[in-house]
C-alpha cells in the first residue's frame, strides 16, 4: 500500500533514509562514548590503585626492615652469648657440668654464673624474661625483675625440633607465659630460644629469651593501613596481630596462614575473601631473621575508596548507553535466550545432583556443540565420581587398618622375655599359662581381619592382657571387670580397652607405692554405651589433664601418647566425632578414662 508523506509517496512498512542513517549511526556513537568512558575509568582507576598499593608495599617493607634490625640484634646477642659462654670453659659451663652429678646442689658461684648469663639480656627493652633450663631441670632458673628458681618448668615445647629443621636456634610466636607473672605483666610472650649441649642433636637444655608482646604491638600498630586494615605476623606456630577490626572483614586465619607459609616467594600479594565475602588484599614480606611473614591485610574497598569517585563519574557519562544496551538486548534475547535458558536449566539440574541432561537440536551450531559437550562432560563426571567414591572407600579402609596395625609392639617383646625368664627358672607350668594367654590375646587381636568385635571378645582380650601383666608383676595390682551382661553382644572397635589398661599400669599404678587396682565397668545409656577404666594410681596434675583433653579435641597436636590417640581416632572414624575417649583425673587420686561408643556403627564404617 502506498501513502503520501510530505508530498511524496512511500510504501507502507518502509523507512526514511534519515531514520535508516540514525538507526545505523546512533549505536556506533553510543558504543564510542561507552568505550571511551570505560577506558578512561580503567586507566584512572589503575593509576590510583597502583599508587595505593605502592604505599602499602613501602609500609610493609620499612616495617619489615625495622623489625629485622631489632630482632637481629637480639639474635646476634644470643648467638654471641652461646659462643662465649657455652663453648668456652666459662663459669657457666663449669656450673652446667657440675649439675650432671646426682648430688648436685647449687652454690653461690653457680647462682652468680646463672645471673650473669641471664642479666645480659634482661636489659633489652623488648625482653620480658629469660630462662635457663638444663639437665632435666637440675638447673631451672629465670630472670624477670629478679633471679629465681623454677619448679616443674614445662620445657617440652622447647626441646623438640620442628620438622625439616636442622637449626639449634628457634623462634616461637605468642604463647601463654611459662613463668609466674605480676598483675601488670602480659599473660603472653613470644620466645627466642637456643638448645644447649649435644651439638643440637639431643639437647641437654635450652636457653629462652621471652619477648614482650608490646614490642611487636608498637611495631604492628604504628602504620595506618586503613580503618579496618592491620599488620600481622605469621609463623608456623601462630598468628600475631593486635588491631581490632570489623567482623565483616574477619578471615579464615588457618587458611591464610597456610597460603602465606606455603608461598615460595619472599614477598608478594594475595587476593582473599573474608568469611562474609568481602574482598581482601594481603601484601606480605618475609622477616629475614626468623622467616616469619609480615603481612598487611586490608579491605580493598577501603584502600581504593577514591576509585569510587571516578566510577560514579563514569556511570553518569555512560548512562545514555544503558538505554541502548536494554534495547539491543531485547532484540537479541528472542533469538539467543531460549537455547541458553535450556542449557541453564540443564546446568541447574546438574548442580542439584541430577547428572542427566537432555540434548535438543538448535539452529545455532554453537549451541548444539555446547549441549553435546555438556552431556559428554556429565557422563565423564559420573564415571569419575564413581571412581573417586571407590578410591575413597579403599583409602578409608587402608587408613583404619594402618592405624590398627601401628599399636606399639613392646607388650609382645616384654611378654616373650618374661616367658623366657620363666623357662630359665624351670617354671614350665607358669610359662605355658602365659603362652596360652598370649595366644588368646593375639587371636582376638587378629580376629580374622575384622575391625570390629563384640564387647565380650574385647573384655576377654583385656582379661588375658591383665592376666599376663599380673604374672609379670605379681601383687603390684589387682583388677575387677564388672560390665552389664546386656552389653556384651554389642560391637566395639577391637584393641580399644587394652591401650587404656596398659597406660593405667605403666603411667598410674607402677608409679604409686600403694597396691594398684584397676576397675572396668560398663553401662547402657540409651543409644550409647559408656565403658569406664578406673585406676588408683598417681593420677595427673591439672595442667597435664588439660593438655590431654586439648590433644583429644585437636588430634593435630602431638601431646598425647600414640596408642591413646590411635584409639580415639579409630573410635571417631567408626562411631562419629562425638564419640571417643575422655579423661578425669586428680593428682594422687587415680584416673578414670571414659569410652563412649554407640550401639550401632556409622553406615560408612560398617
Automatic annotation (TrEMBL):
Return the InterPro entries for the record: Bact_2-comp_sensor_kinase, HAMP_dom, HATPase_C_sf, HATPase_dom, His_kinase_dom, Sig_transdc_His_kin_internal
* Broad enzyme group: transferase
Per the UniProt record, which residue ranges are transmembrane?
21-43, 312-336
Q: Which Enzyme Commission numbers does its entry carry?
A: 2.7.13.3
Annotated HAMP domain ranges read 334-386
Q: Which reaction does it catalyse?
A: ATP + protein L-histidine = ADP + protein N-phospho-L-histidine
State the GO CC annotations.
plasma membrane
- Cellular location(s): Cell membrane
Give the main localization category: membrane
Task: Give the Histidine kinase domain ranges.
Answer: 497-601
Q: Name the UniProt key words of this record, in alphabetical order.
A: ATP-binding, Cell membrane, Coiled coil, Kinase, Membrane, Nucleotide-binding, Phosphoprotein, Transferase, Transmembrane, Transmembrane helix, Two-component regulatory system
Q: Which GO terms describe its molecular function?
A: ATP binding; phosphorelay sensor kinase activity
Q: How does it sit in the membrane?
A: Multi-pass membrane protein
Q: Which Pfam families match?
A: HAMP, HATPase_c, His_kinase
Coiled coil start-end: 371-408
Query: Which protein is depicted?
Result: histidine kinase
Species this chain originates from: Paenibacillus rigui
Per the UniProt record, the lineage of the source organism begins with: Bacteria, Bacillati, Bacillota, Bacilli, Bacillales
Amino acid at each position: 500500500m502506498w501513502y503520501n508523506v510530505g508530498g511524496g509517496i512511500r510504501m507502507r512498512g518502509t523507512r526514511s533514509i534519515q531514520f535508516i542513517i540514525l538507526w545505523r549511526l546512533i549505536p556506533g556513537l553510543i558504543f564510542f562514548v561507552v568505550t571511551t568512558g570505560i577506558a578512561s575509568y580503567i586507566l584512572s582507576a589503575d593509576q590510583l590503585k597502583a599508587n595505593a598499593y605502592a604505599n602499602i608495599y613501602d609500609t610493609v617493607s620499612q616495617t619489615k626492615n625495622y623489625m629485622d634490625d631489632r630482632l637481629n640484634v637480639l639474635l646476634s646477642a644470643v648467638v654471641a652469648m652461646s659462643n662465649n659462654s657455652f663453648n668456652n670453659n666459662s663459669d657457666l659451663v663449669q656450673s652446667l657440668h657440675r649439675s650432671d652429678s646426682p648430688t648436685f646442689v647449687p652454690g653461690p658461684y653457680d647462682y652468680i654464673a646463672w645471673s650473669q648469663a641471664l642479666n645480659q639480656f634482661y636489659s633489652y627493652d623488648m625482653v620480658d624474661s629469660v630462662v635457663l633450663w638444663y639437665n632435666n631441670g637440675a638447673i631451672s632458673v629465670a630472670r624477670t625483675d629478679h633471679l629465681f628458681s623454677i619448679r616443674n618448668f614445662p620445657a617440652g615445647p622447647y626441646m623438640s625440633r620442628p620438622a625439616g629443621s636442622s637449626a639449634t636456634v628457634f623462634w616461637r610466636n605468642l604463647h601463654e607465659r611459662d613463668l609466674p607473672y605480676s598483675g601488670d605483666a602480659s599473660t603472653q610472650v613470644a620466645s627466642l630460644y637456643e638448645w644447649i649441649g649435644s651439638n643440637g642433636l639431643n639437647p641437654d637444655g635450652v636457653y629462652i629469651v621471652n619477648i614482650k608482646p608490646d614490642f611487636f604491638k608498637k611495631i604492628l600498630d604504628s602504620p595506618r593501613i586503613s580503618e579496618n586494615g592491620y599488620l600481622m605476623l605469621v609463623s608456623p606456630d601462630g598468628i600475631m596481630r593486635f588491631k581490632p577490626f570489623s567482623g565483616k572483614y574477619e578471615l579464615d586465619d588457618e587458611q591464610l596462614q597456610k597460603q602465606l607459609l606455603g608461598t615460595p616467594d619472599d614477598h608478594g600479594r594475595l587476593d582473599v575473601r573474608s568469611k562474609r565475602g568481602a574482598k581482601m588484599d594481603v601484601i606480605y614480606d618475609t622477616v629475614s631473621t626468623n622467616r616469619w611473614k609480615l603481612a598487611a591485610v586490608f579491605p580493598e574497598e577501603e584502600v581504593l575508596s577514591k576509585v569510587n569517585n571516578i566510577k560514579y563519574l563514569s556511570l553518569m557519562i555512560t548512562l545514555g548507553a544503558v538505554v541502548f544496551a536494554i534495547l539491543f538486548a531485547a532484540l537479541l534475547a528472542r533469538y539467543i535466550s531460549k537455547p541458553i535458558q535450556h542449557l541453564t536449566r540443564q546446568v541447574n539440574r546438574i548442580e542439584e545432583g541430577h547428572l542427566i541432561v537432555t540434548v535438543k537440536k538448535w539452529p545455532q551450531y554453537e549451541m548444539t556443540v555446547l549441549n553435546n559437550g555438556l552431556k559428554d562432560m556429565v557422563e565423564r563426571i559420573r564415571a569419575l565420581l564413581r571412581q573417586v567414591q571407590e578410591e575413597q572407600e579403599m583409602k578409608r579402609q587402608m587408613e583404619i587398618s594402618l592405624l590398627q596395625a601401628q599399636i606399639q609392639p613392646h607388650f609382645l617383646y616384654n611378654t616373650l622375655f618374661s616367658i623366657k625368664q620363666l623357662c630359665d627358672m624351670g617354671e614350665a607350668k607358669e610359662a605355658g599359662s602365659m603362652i596360652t594367654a598370649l595366644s588368646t590375646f593375639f587371636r582376638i587381636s587378629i580376629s580374622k581381619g575384622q575391625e570390629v568385635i563384640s564387647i565380650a571378645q574385647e573384655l576377654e582380650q583385656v582379661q588375658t592382657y591383665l592376666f599376663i601383666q599380673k604374672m609379670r608383676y605379681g601383687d603390684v595390682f589387682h583388677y575387677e571387670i564388672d560390665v552389664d551382661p546386656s552389653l556384651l553382644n554389642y560391637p566395639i572397635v577391637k584393641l580399644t580397652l587394652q591401650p587404656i589398661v596398659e597406660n593405667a599400669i605403666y603411667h598410674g599404678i607402677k608409679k604409686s607405692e600403694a597396691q594398684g587396682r584397676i576397675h572396668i565397668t560398663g553401662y547402657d545409656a540409651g543409644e550409647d554405651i559408656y565403658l569406664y577404666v578406673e585406676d588408683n594410681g598417681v593420677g595427673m596434675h591439672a595442667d597435664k589433664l588439660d593438655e590431654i583433653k586439648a590433644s583429644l579435641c585437636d588430634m593435630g597436636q602431638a601431646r598425647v601418647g600414640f596408642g591413646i590417640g590411635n584409639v580415639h581416632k579409630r573410635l571417631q572414624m567408626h562411631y562419629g566425632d562425638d564419640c571417643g575417649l575422655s579423661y578425669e583425673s586428680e593428682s594422687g587420686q587415680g584416673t578414670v578414662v571414659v569410652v563412649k561408643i554407640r550401639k550401632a556403627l556409622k553406615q560408612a564404617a560398617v
